[in-house]
Input
Amino acid sequence: MTSRIHAELDFDRNGKQTGFLRIPHSVHRSAYGWLPMPAVCVRNGNGPRVLILAGNHGDEYEGQVAICKLARNLEPDLIRGRVVMLPMANYPAALAGRRTSPVDGGNLNRSFPGDANGTMTQMIAHFIEEVLIRDCDLMIDIHSGGSSLDYVPSVQAQFEPDGGLSSSLNELVEAFAAPFTQVYMTGSEDRMSESAARRKGALYFTTELGGAGTVTTEALRLAEHGIIRTLHTFGCLQGLPIETPEPPPTRYVEVRGDEHFVYASEDGVFEPLVALGDEVSAGQPAAAMYFPETPWREPVIEPFRSNGIVLCERTMARSRRGDCLFHLGEDWSG
Ligand SMILES: [Zn+2]
Output
């Protein structure tokens, strides 16, 4: 099915193009209107084709700013092949600074492979998978914790079925060089951008650079430098448009299933009892849940169920049963 999203850019043309992907949006105030999803394409002949997304979740900002900088710095003579950048991949969500779209409630990263005739978020997912990922060799999807979570600066990459990272992917995540590289087993979830890349045969990694609905200097530098080092290692960037310092080696951590996650078991306000980056052990208290509605009630202690390193922490104190408070990773030797 052909996409109903019309690209003002011709992704096969050499040079630098900026413009909009026009998402049809016929509403009361604009019968024939479209929403302008910004895109940048820099191409110099044949070579590696890279797709960089940010704003897949609209309240994750590090990648959005990094792409703004890269979009202005990257010129065709610096590269070989093609770099396509979408700073606001779920455009209505990014415009609103929300994880999900205010138009249809859609979470883009739970919407792949999408639907050309579906809701707006499904249309966007379909365009990204069938037009952009289909035609790329490497996809980098820049995420962070968004409004509700904060992360130690990390890359996330998936295991190959034989239990390791493919050697080419390994080289790329080492080039990105986040302090942590979280490796995880591909699960049953097939609606994420990672699954889209796998379906289309593109190399892929994502990031969790920080979060809390903000941009820190540290996370932003990592996004900027990490993307540039990765493009260079992938053979797409011939020179370095900005100075990138030599990073320390990344620490590999494995994130498994439920035993690495701590969820609120009741509605309440939580006090974190550990900090990001702490080493913890199974049974150790992770959080104390308080109940201001009945302040005389004993707090509930939420324990860790595994040893590990605290990679992720909930930022919003008021929590409901089922909200993720923490997740861990354990050192991974490959
Ligand atoms: Zn995200």
The CA atoms of residues 194 and 204 lie 6 Å apart. The chain has a mean pLDDT of 95. The first strand starts at residue 6 and ends at 7.
